[in-house]
């Protein structure tokens, strides 16, 4: 395995790029000329294979194959096939992962299904710095089924689970700080307290080395439009460990989760595995793009990709320290998700200035500038150049007062 | 308005085609050479504008615009804009319709939200011949929230609503028979009994002249991949009458239904109108195809399109009567959805024989052959030729015994 070090000069960064075992993967993406894209934690760029897949699915399979493509082009099997390929990225068995719906919808399904598994089925737990939609969905579920919601302090979800039991919804990588949770430790606490964790892998899948089996995780969902590069709003996935699948009831019991959807029976009889969490007819064009995007990962070891992502982040953190820019992300050598959040009271204006220079990062109120480092297409020299530009902006621009503003873009 | 009569010869059918005010609409579709496509009640063919839209959304907006396209390409506004254009097809106000998720998911949201509106909030009602996923979803919701489910006999949902109150889920057009329900009559019964109807417009939208406002309908969802031609698994829509929207709580309270999704607040605060029924991030590529498909409808009066669809169906029913083929669909001159179901104990084999001749229809066990007549691209001569071929198959083929089989294709 390649040992990615922190380069001390642009030349050293270029040497790392030259020796990078993942260097050729970048060619598999469509990347606009001159753009330095550091926003893959929000929306991944287009793999050429994803663009080809969506062209084929629309212009050929739909336009010419029409209804026959449900069988002939394999549309019926896409959710489980794509799920099986995502499984390899998160340390799961292929049949335990299915692509369906959005993370929001899947969190609802999994948390509702988890309640009867938990010792104390009257408690839902979410941390107060959890990604907002996770909080909203759990709030909505709690109101619907009359279950109380505990809003734990940041980092105290597991302690609340140990104390109260119930169901905890928890991101593996925090969307703001990129802090990575110890999944095994959490699962031990959950299983000792007869509690259940529903993992959100949105900011983790495709960039850190998730190992659901080793961690003993039972339920998870995640997003595919960030580091998996599945396209804008690409459908999410559900992971269910096979030995609990048969005990679980999806509350959204749509026909695609039925054991025999085309028998048109009146009573619901779910599939055996994770596929029972499918609901309605999947959006085939978006799903085809995701399926094409997964081709990029087929030859990649997540262990190597994760090491490179951490090294890219380390370089960012090291350069930021030289500029006296504080970060809320884990430091050099620590476990960290694919992005780094640097703080500045004029963060919004600074990110706008970077974007004007074709360096794409994003901003989260009130003061976090997020830089995302996908190991598949970001180079060490890219990080170096972006930090050079950031340093230049800080040295040459001044602001009378902080310009707080909300950036409207999808996380 | 054109008076479409039943042609008594192929020449008469050709004359109708020549004089058809919708004749030129056919050119806006990509239709495979030599294929006679009568399966638009299952999956509509590709409008050229839909193919162009998905090419632009993937190859340009995603590939080059990347994250900026959420604002610059208007992705954020697509669900409400597409909803507003569907509104015109179903007699609704533009702001009362939003595109999101699947029919299955939307039925769950609407039925759950309707329960507190209904006098007797302990009852869900569905008819036993309702489309299966509608039955499954209501069964799942009932189990989750502990509300009893009444399975009424076919056509007796309104009577059950009058007797018990509660929430009835009801298709406007039956998926098997194409029978059309009197929506106004149903709504009167619902409102007299303080009950609520959640309408499923899946087999109605884009082919019959739905008028939600006149009918007094409050809640509806529907599919866009059939007669709206939005593409395989295209996202569905939700209709909520504006004067009840503020009273309704979506149980799937995802961030896209939040009044300010990018404020990243911890508490849920829904949007004012139907858009509060959005949940997660929408599948933009599939949504873009739908948006492109809606261009076809922009110059079309649904009144005229519906009259043509009924006339095409009348011709099918008339020809079937000459062959002594029984139908379970409404007769000539009666109100009927866009398809006709003809019965034959060897229906499966007959449909396979038609498909082998490039005449695409479908089959529903045990004996229903379904022929769909979209007014946008089906010609009177197409119906004539398909019925000629059917007559020929019946006259020349024989089967030892009925060959029952389930056809695996998405309704």
Quick overview:
The structure is a homodimer of 411-residue chains. Chain A has helices spanning 10-19, 48-65, 69-72, 78-87, 103-114, 132-145, 157-164, 183-192, 212-215, 242-245, 284-294, 302-322, 347-356, 380-396, and strands at residues 29-30, 36-37, 46-47, 97-99, 123-127, 148-152, 167-171, 196-200, 219-222, 237-240, 339-343, 359-360, 362-364, 368-372.
Q: Helices and strands in order, then pairings?
A:
The structure is a homodimer of 411-residue chains.
Chain A lengths: L9 H10 L9 E2 L5 E2 L8 E2 H18 L3 H4 L5 H10 L9 E3 L3 H12 L8 E5 L4 H14 L2 E5 L4 H8 L2 E5 L11 H10 L3 E5 L11 H4 L3 E4 L14 E4 L1 H4 L38 H11 L7 H21 L16 E5 L3 H10 L2 E2 L1 E3 L3 E5 L7 H17 L15
Parallel strand pairs in A: 2-12, 5-6, 5-7, 7-8, 8-9
Antiparallel strand pairs in A: 1-3, 4-10, 9-10, 11-14, 13-14
Helix pairs in contact in A: 1-14, 2-11, 4-11, 5-6, 7-8, 12-14
